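Continuing the series of single-chain predictions for the mutant panel. This is the parent chain; the variants come on the following pages.
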Amino acid sequence: MIVNRYAFTRYTLGYKVLNLNRLDSVAVISMDGTIIETSMDGIKFVIIKSIFYKDRKYMED
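Parent structure:
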């Protein structure tokens, strides 16, 4: 799923999130939205976490 230039893809631990404007800006979040690993700054992570909570019902199972 792509929202606001962030690509969310299913991953074994949860979801991988890629900033399509900066391909070196990646995060892995668990199914419940907690951070597992990231190379994003805090502001971008807050943005993707908000998107995740709002739109996770639309993400593939």
